[in-house]
Design brief:
five-stranded mixed sheet; binds protoporphyrin IX containing FE; alpha+beta; 398 residues
């Protein structure tokens, strides 16, 4: 295997990217990938350097190139408009700082902590619908509905429309892969358009009659300070619906997969539920739901002895950094008692995941409820080998 074998769109790589990461880290820690036209950055220290240096590495430009936007614009104008406008995730200071301050005041630790009883009730309800014995689909029954219902509740949008949110969110997540990999943007456009229309309706209603929800809080803070426009409120609601959806689903999916593949770890965790918060950190480190984030290079820079010119893109491989033996001992081992501190699955620096406390809380509560003493779990026969991985260059999960 060599560095050039790493193609993030290939099913073989997606099935298990970790041996490829090892080759990249050890032979070419900064490697030019022609297909994505990015420099891949794979070592822990280098990933940290990129993510903590926003003055050198901008979040503004996505990997999608202007000609790819232009080609998609006639069939998918709403999608292209949305991606071009971007969000907090794709903003640099000072705009990013203003948006982040505003949003952090609406998305407070207290608002998140207050969600715990709701998350517990919901987890119990979803788990109570599982069969007492026999097979079930963990993704469909628990990992998918939980985060989407929680964020819908926080935003104050109707949880009953969760299947629509899920579909819209899937279309949004798929859209960059579609543009980058020559797919048909007309297939995702309807979902993006429906989501925009729906959110515009809710925002108009909250503007008239505010409630105790996140959208009303955003409107109140943002409009008072003139930071948010009607369009940016829609963008932010979309970001929350999407950013916290598939990622948290995949934390539960990847985490349970790791436990089922390591039955002694599952047993340990079931016997000692106090370890669950620590196990969640290890699940994030071991198999990160977000494998990569990219940046645009603003000034010529050198990383691991390789010069990277201004105007190019870099992709930091978070999933690789988390398994760098320079950072973690025996990194390929999944160990629920490990100190996984420093793992970069939520990113690092000014864009550090805003929803990290919520994702951690959801995973902790869901696992506490699922791994009750006396319940035993294993892969359904033949399923261990059949787990299929999301078709996305950065999002990873069953
Ligand atoms: C940012 C991962 C859950 C909202 C990020 C970033 C990562 C990430 C890697 C940084 C992106 C970058 O540096 O370019 C994850 C993972 C999650 C998760 C692995 C679940 C396990 C959530 C949830 C929410 C959320 C539940 C909200 C409901 C956001 C937002 C940002 C962000 C708004 C942008 C922050 C900024 O640009 O300042 N997330 N996320 N995420 N995440 Fe999450």
């Amino acid at each position: 295997m060599q560095a050039s074998d790493f193609n993030p769109f290939s099913p073989t790589v997606r099935a298990n990217p970790y041996p490829y990461y090892e080759v990249l880290r050890e032979t070419a820690p900064v490697y030019w990938n022609e297909q994505l036209r990015v420099h891949l950055v794979s070592r822990f220290e280098d990933v940290l350097f990129v993510t903590k240096s926003p003055a050198l590495f901008s979040s503004k430009r996505s990997l999608v190139r202007e000609e790819q936007y232009a080609a998609a614009e006639t069939v998918a104008p709403v999608l292209v408009g949305t991606l071009r406008r971007g969000s907090m995730l794709t903003a640099d200071p000072p705009i990013h700082t203003r948006l982040r301050n505003l949003v952090s005041r609406a998305f407070t630790p207290r608002r998140v902590a207050d969600m715990e009883p709701f998350i517990r009730r919901l987890s119990r309800e979803l788990i109570s619908q599982l069969p007492e014995s026999g097979e079930f689909d963990l993704m469909k029954e628990l990992a998918e509905p939980l985060p989407i219902i929680v964020i819908a509740e926080m935003l104050g949008v109707e949880p009953a429309r969760r299947l629509d949110f899920k579909r819209w969110s899937d279309d949004t997540v798929a859209s960059t892969t579609v543009l980058l990999n020559g797919g048909d943007p007309a297939l995702v456009e309807p979902g993006i358009r429906e989501m925009r229309d729906y959110l515009e309706g809710v925002i108009a209603a909250r503007r008239k009659e505010p409630r105790d929800d996140l959208i009303s809080a955003l409107l109140e803070n943002g409009e008072k300070e003139g930071v948010l426009t009607a369009e940016t409120v829609v963008d932010f609601c979309r970001l929350l619906l999407v950013a916290g959806n598939e990622t948290t689903t995949n934390l539960l999916g990847n985490g349970m997969r790791a436990l089922l593949s390591n039955p002694e770890q599952l047993e340990r965790l079931t016997a000692e539920p106090a370890l669950i918060p620590n196990a969640v950190e290890e699940m994030l480190r071991y198999d990160s739901p977000v494998q990569a984030v990219s940046r645009y290079v603003l000034q010529d820079v050198e990383i691991a002895g390789t010069r990277i010119p201004a105007g190019s893109n870099v992709m930091t491989l978070l999933g690789s950094a988390n398994r760098d033996p320079r950072k973690y001992t025996d990194p390929e081992r999944f160990d629920v008692t490990r100190n996984a501190q420093g793992m970069v699955s939520f990113g690092h620096g000014i864009h550090f995941c805003l929803g990290a406390p919520l994702a951690r809380l959801e995973a902790k509560v869901a696992l506490e409820e699922l791994l009750e003493p006396g319940r035993r779990f294993s892969f359904a026969p033949g399923q261990r080998e059949r787990v299929e991985i999301t078709n996305h260059f950065s999002i990873r999960g069953p």
